[in-house]
Amino acid sequence: MAGKSNKGRNRRGSNNAATNSSESVVSSNASNKESKDNLSASEPIKDDANGVPVAVESTDTQPEVKEVEPENSASQTKQGDLHLFPVSVKTQSSEKLELQLNPGDSVMDIRQFLLDAPETCFFTCYDLLLHTKDGSTHHLEDFNEISEVADITSGGCSLEMVPALYDDRSIRAHVYRTRELLSLSTLHASVSTSLALQHEMAQNKATSPGDTTKTDVLELDGLGFMEDVTGSLGNLLSSSLKEIKCVESIVFSSFNPPPSYRRLVGDLIYLDVVTLEGNKFCITGTTKMFYVNSSTGNTLDPRPSKTNFEATTLVGLLQKISSKFKKAFREVLERRASSHPFENVQSLLPPNSWLGLYPVPDHKRDAARAEDALILSYGSELIGMQRDWNEELQSCREFPHTNPQERILRDRALYKVTSDFVDAAVSGAIGVINRCIPPINPTDPECFHMYVHNNIFFSFAVDGDLEQLSKKCVSDNKLKNVSNDSLPEKAFSGSLHGDSGLPNGEKCDRSCTGEHNSVTELAPDASAEAPSAETEQATYASANNDLKGTKAYQEADVPGLYNLAMAIIDYRGHRVVAQSVLPGILQGDKSESLLYGSVDNGKKINWNEDFHLKVVEAAKRLHLKEHTVHDGSGNVFKLAAPVECKGIVGSDDRHYLLDLMRVTPRDANYTGPGSRFCILRPELITAFCQAKATERSKTKSTSQGDAHTASNSPNVDGEIQDITKEENTEDVQECASAPAESFESQEGILFNPNIFTEFKLAGNHEEIAADEENVRKASSYLTDVVLPKFIQDLCTLEVSPMDGQTLTEALHAHGINVRYIGKVADGTRHLPHLWDLCSSEIVVRSAKHIFKAVLRDTEDHDLGPAISHFFNCFFGSCSAVASKVSANSVQSRTPKKDQMGHQSPGKHSRGQARWKGGASARKNQSSYMNISSESLWLDIQEFARVKYQFELPEHVRTQIKKISVIRNLCQKVGITIAARRYDLNSTAPFQTSDVLNLQPVVKHSVPVCSEAKDLVETGKVQLAEGMLSEAYTLFSEAFSILQQVTGPMHREVANCCRYLAMVLYHAGDMAGAIMQQHKELIINERCLGLDHPDTAHSYGNMALFYHGLNQTELALRHMSRALLLLSLSSGPDHPDVAATFINVAMMYQDIGKMNTALRYLQEALKKNERLLGEEHIQTAVCYHALAIAFNCMGAFKLSHQASPFLESKIRLHRPSLHVMGAKWGV
């Protein structure tokens, strides 16, 4: 919301700021994405390394930038026309606040602010009255916008909070809110804030806060983190805030519910309260107030007590009956008010922490916590109607969006609804996996159960090795209306065709097996011998692809074409797909509602002209071609989407497009069995089309289409040069033969999504051949251009991922599927840190799938032992626990055996074992007990060979960076372990007590704000051109819009803060840069994780800014934290660690501690020479820094020895230095 309060603006100054994730603090290009844009933040460190103090260099400021206050960026916004106007608020306690409101703000926005303000945070049940200057009074409804009621732009308007009547729901919400306020558990203090506070306290205690104080803390344990990564695990987590106890307990009384005769006079609830003084009170909550009744013992006495304490809020009553409560509650509010506003905001789906506090905190009695836990709602509303997620989502999509303000309101509504849906879906999926929610088809096999809870459909992504079971069920005619990928639509199609001529067996055969088997029409026998590892991957891939396809069509945003809300939840080895309910599916609507696509793998295709026109419009935006296909009877249909998609008209008369597993074409490099869902990424399609469009424009501008001109293209860097040299003739021929209308549009090349599939294509052979050639060229572009360019960027540090997550994001951003990671590893063997990163990611991904199979086959009471045993086998040297059990029970986990088709059709596979009904039907002995270190690593190596075409060396088991691999695996499967020192050289380093939690891992389709994204992209261009004032305005506008759409806790908001900090830094406003960095760091810690590489780089950037303010001691504290985080995510051997060492050395050098500076510089030089080689530019930077350090020490001889080597490196890298100099102004 745009509203702000004028109170609480003054904080602790710059010391209260924390870092922002300007991803490249270090002199290497540390970010795996947008690295070029972030280099401008890292270069000042290089200037500092050259001996020029940052503060001195930054004196050239631009006044127009410095005058803009970051805090008031919302008022500067132009795109949304967000002009703010002052409106006073009279609270229930007769205090007055002043808000800055925009006419487009809703009443819900005002309520949310009042809920966050310290003066009004405990008021929950009230009406808002708007008084205008003409004397009229308006009652505000929650969903109204202020502009709909009155014009606040003319001034003289005020708001008044008037107590409203409680009801059963609102009074319970009031009690929960009061409990929440009394706890500081929702206050998430940034570690940077703690560092600043510690520094401030040290400065206050010191009599002369100069070098003496600094000397005591300057010898930071930066190198120590590198030497003992395991021992530093406990340093990651900050100790939780000390709770301020306000009351002993507030619980619902056992007098509840009120007797009927008391209900008639307004009693709603009874509470038992024990104050800090030890007094016990029984409190009555009525429709109007709370008061202390006269009850004692076991008999209710509803009469007010003799003291006659009463108040309209529970907090107000507690302040009257307890002086200690009043004092403690004031401290709580002061603590919240003194913290950064972002630290009080809750984040959507916070990242799972892979480390938990050690020693484990004592679990103490808490009656309120027990009450909440015993109410098993699994995300649904306890009182009132359940939310209709689909109707909410589609109604929001139908909001007008013709102007910027309307688009902001629409995006905000979509974000809110989708976020709430994902939150409810996660809770429901946990209930489904824990068997707490009954299925709607209990007579079917458990693996095919469907669940409806809280108006959400839940279905399991079923493994391919359940094929035999499904075929048996088909023969028995037991399975009806079943689907693997998207249960709502499949269940709908089942009821839709229930009375048609299509046999149930055919429907079930397709539903149970067709979607996940490879090219069943072309190779009918392939499915019987399909490897279970691959078919499991196909199942997981189909769910992933469906989610990506849903996102793509949502972003295409075609009017009249709708998609369901969707989320994927991985928990305890299971994958659950959650979707909003398709209107009409639960009512058994059997009308002809399937208008488009096929439900039986193309045997029968439905088609509707109106639906087709909408799909064609979306296809143009997704680079999909309108094409013709045959159905099973030979009829020809014109489609613009995959054959297996389903266009359905719901009972709400909306057109829904479902089953979007292939919205991009097949990868022509993967056409064998089990590769049905190996499709190209949309980023690659976009890059390929841009490359071809640029090539065509260059060809047309010259008479002979000189291929060398393509190298000047600004859009595709050097990628066009290769493709024009090798394929120019083919491309020109393709342009001539393709339909003219395909290239007249700006979308460029269009792809047939049904190429290289089992579906029968219509049309002439030339057209089909041209479509196939298009897909082949795109696939070749991936392997011949994009992949080599990506490997080159990795080698030159243009892209510098730190861990598996950032490596995956870098691959995806370049349009490369993770299945190509083996080729990336092969291309980076000469650089140890890259080869280690790629091979470790392959190891973790292979182990993850084996581990999920173990979890699926493990009983609830064995989860802890199973996890610890698996980890001991993985990281230690552990033998099987139960050697007497036949090894046949775990052979199905070996991809090699599955690949060769050795599994007997009559045996239960790992997928079937997890689904056996009751405990009596399950195995007496868990299969995890049969795993040993040898067998596990053999399985991992075989899985890597099959899945990633990568041969893991025999010594990989001993050479992996164990802490980084543990972190990566825990994050991928949702495990939390104790943050203690582990002896990873022992045979069994883990104990069952070390496993603290198992959490769900979520993928979702929460929409992004395209408006803000475009502003950020434009701002980055302005920043690169040195237009700081214009860039600041654009980033401020994007920040303001995102604040309104997503709230502050979002990764894109952090990006805006990062760029704002960059602009302010280059403009010389260090305090402003620190302020923005603090915001960005808080967001990164909350949204990405405490040890995410972006968070580490944020600490490094914050150190840079503090150093610019000559607060070197505080800067070094932040650098120490950055080194700790880097040691956990990447390990000690990474160029970014070496670059951070250089930055630390320069800071030591500036305060005269040359010996310490030299120690860090020498360590950085060793790392760069070992990791990058003596000829790399980063090695030259180390020599240059050493030369300056020796010169400062007076060691001119050593300085001159380093200089010739540097000069040779400069000559070698002169072109690169010219480019960097032009970009950074060096």
The structure class reads: alpha+beta
Given as residue ranges, the uncertain stretches (5+ residues, pLDDT < 50) are: 1-81, 209-217, 463-535, 707-747, 883-924, 1212-1226
- Taking the alpha carbons of the first and last residues, their distance comes to 41 Å
Helix proportion of residues, in percent?
A: 40-55%
> Count of DSSP E strands?
26
The quaternary structure here is: single chain
Q: Given the C-alpha coordinates, what overall shape results?
A: globular
Reported for the largest beta sheet, the result is: 6 strands, mixed
What order do the strands of the largest sheet run in, or round the barrel if closed? 1-3-2-6-4-5
Biased composition (Low complexity): 13-32
Pfam families: CLU (PF13236), CLU_N (PF15044), eIF3_p135 (PF12807), GSKIP_dom (PF05303), TPR_10 (PF13374), TPR_12 (PF13424)
Keywords: Cytoplasm, TPR repeat
Biased composition (Basic residues): 1-12
Commentary on this structure:
- With 1226 residues, this protein is of the alpha+beta class.
- Helix content is 47%, strand content 9%.
- It contains 44 helices and 26 strands.
- A 6-stranded mixed β-sheet has the order 1-3-2-6-4-5, with helices on one face. A 5-stranded antiparallel β-sheet has the order 7-8-9-10-11.
- Helix 34 runs parallel beside helix 36.
- Residues 13-32 have a biased composition (Low complexity).
From the structure above, extract its key features.
1226 residues, alpha+beta, six-stranded mixed beta sheet, disordered C terminus, Clustered mitochondria protein isoform X3, CLU_prot, cytoplasm
